[in-house]
Write a structure and sequence with these properties.
heterodimer; A: 116 residues; mainly beta; 4-stranded antiparallel sheet; 0% helix; globular; B: 112 residues; 5-stranded antiparallel sheet; 11 strands; 54% strand
């Protein structure tokens, strides 16, 4: 089974702190994603990566950066955390099957971040 | 960008009742995915639809994709408390297949 793990389930940080959220997948997937989930807004894509050292902005990249130095690991960085970044952060990975166009995403358990 | 609209936003049903959740896309869907999320946890894949008119079932959950491939419905028959959670539809971005979009979700509560 594909396993996507996230470094923390719950995290509490102070405004202005630098925050690292780590995500690791064990199925050699090319694509990895970071989303945030807020009530009434659903999942919103922050950044995604389709290869090592490659990254693309999603819909809400402001205030975030990412790092993908190894294929299995995708890190989300909040350079200076703010209270409006309090949210549930979900990491996902996927592999596009070119024959079937099957592109299922596998999700980690999520990190609930609170910024005080 | 592609948008997925889900309805209703929330639903409370009595155990044993049937229910339907809808997902409408602003663009033609090339792959439509249904996920379930238990409160405070990650998403679990339910099923994926690709062809117009396609229908798939898993236990008491049936999903359909319309012929025009712009709308999908998820139907639960004889709901149980274990069906409670948030249901999200997701789709490949038609302009960039490395990207993925989600609807805002439907929160389902099943009263015993």
């Amino acid at each position: 089974d594909v396993k996507v793990t996230q470094s923390s389930r719950y995290l509490v940080k102070r405004t202005g702190e630098k925050v690292f959220l780590e995500c690791v997948q064990d199925m050699d997937h090319e694509n990895m994603f970071w989303y945030r989930q807020d009530p009434g807004l659903g999942l919103r894509l922050i950044y995604f990566s389709y290869d090592v050292k490659m990254k693309e902005k999603g819909d809400i990249p402001e205030g975030y950066s990412v790092s993908r130095e190894k294929k299995e690991r995708f890190s989300l960085i909040l350079e200076s955390a703010s209270t409006n970044q309090t949210s549930m952060y979900l990491c996902a990975s996927s592999f596009m099957d070119l024959k079937s166009s099957y592109n299922e995403q596998f999700f980690g358990p999520g990190t609930r971040l609170t910024v005080l | 960008s592609q948008e997925l609209e889900q309805s209703p936003q929330s639903l409370i049903v009595q155990e044993g009742k049937n229910l339907t959740i809808n997902c409408t896309s602003s663009k033609t869907l090339y792959g439509l995915y249904w996920y379930k999320q238990k409160y405070g946890e990650g998403l679990i894949f339910l099923m994926m639809l690709q062809k117009g008119g396609e229908e798939k079932s898993h236990e008491k959950i049936t999903a359909k994709l319309d012929e025009k491939k712009q709308q999908s419905s998820l139907h639960i028959t004889a709901s149980q408390p274990s069906h409670a959670g948030i249901y999200l539809c997701g789709a490949d971005d038609s302009d960039n297949f490395n990207k993925f979009y989600f609807g805002s979700g439907t929160k389902l509560n099943v009263k015993p």
